[in-house]
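Allow me, if you will, to draw on your knowledge of protein folds for a short while. I have a record of one protein: its chain in single-letter code and its fold written as discrete structure tokens. Kindly check, if you would, that the fold set down in the tokens agrees with what the sequence suggests. Thank you for your consideration; the sequence and its tokens are set out here:
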Amino acid sequence: MLKRFRVSNFKSLLNVEFKPVGLNLLVGQNNAGKSNLCSALRFLGLTSSNTLENAAKATLGETWNISNVYVSEKDKTIELEVEATLSDEGQQLEFDYLLRITADRDSSSLKQSLKVSEEVLKLTAGKFQQTPLLENRNGQAKLLHEKRFLGEVSGWDKYVETLTPQDATMLSRLFDLDTNRRANLFKRYLQGWFYYNLYPHALRSPEVANERALIGHDGSNLSKVLYALHNEKPRLERKIIDMVRTLEPKLDLFTFSSPDPESVYLFLEDQSGNRFSTQSISDGTLRFLAMSYLILMQGNFGDASGPASLILIEEPENGLYVGHLKPLLEKIDPSGQFGQFIFTSHSPYFIDLWDANVDGIHLIKPGKPSSVLVRPNPDKVRQLLNDMSLGEMHYREMLG
């Protein structure tokens, strides 16, 4: 579970600290920095399996202006820090991860060259007391042999020293070996950070976007994902259908046509056998269907890959009657046991749904040179709820 995330010199964010709970809502004006915070989280997650450049392009579409434009040209270091608690064979592991990236801007090509200048992953648990599992400074790297450190195998050299290219993190280059089991556990944790901004066009596409049963950040691959669920987890498919029926009562079944390996066509079928393609389904229904999958999947994962550890969803109320989202949000375990959720929203009606979870509200304010993240006082908010709704508080700028 993510306990603390600090980001500095990323877009509009300078030394911003975020302490999420299990279920979170980011609110604020347009251009306040909500999406930038989500992008920083997404970027760091992607660096665990991609080069820095590819992670930046997947997150922002470019590498230029990834750093804060108001920071001096002499200090273009991007900093990302994580404190997380993970469970391993019944033991609680406390991880601290620091990643510093040097961003050199080339104004002629509208590009920034990104290089790892420092990377440190530390572990506290049992014999590990703030013990570095890996260290990487300007490509000079060393990796802890965990079995030797614990005395499980013989050998004097507890650290393996090597050189590593600076275009990617050392974490992303780890081999899945038992000698680095805990470092790889943290790597898989970051790989489970997923971001979604769902678009109707992508949700309707029959194209198989990737071989894995994962919904793309824009909603692509939905048909493939539900097709895999239909074949492998029919009981979970039924739970999703039952949830979508709160919005579309005529729905009885999902049916599919897969004419070739590259395409899967999804149909919603009623009790009379009438089939409706995704082209005839409303935008809101498709978004609700995708979110139902993402939320219900969290508490029902049974395979070795486990659930996503962090899910970010931008403006879930788009195209939807907000009342339909209340029972869906109630399916989320606010403890974060099955993964943490972060939503962003401008809608006062969606914000109103957080009256039972005010500890998870975070307000982002615009500023120069940096956005400001504020945690509203939960006791004060609960007291104000006697007189007005959360949405009204946000409208009147009373949350912080």
Q: What stands out?
A: The longest strand covers residues 91-106. The first helix runs from residue 34 to 46. The radius of gyration is 22 Å. The domain at 193-308 is CATH 3.40.50 (Rossmann fold).
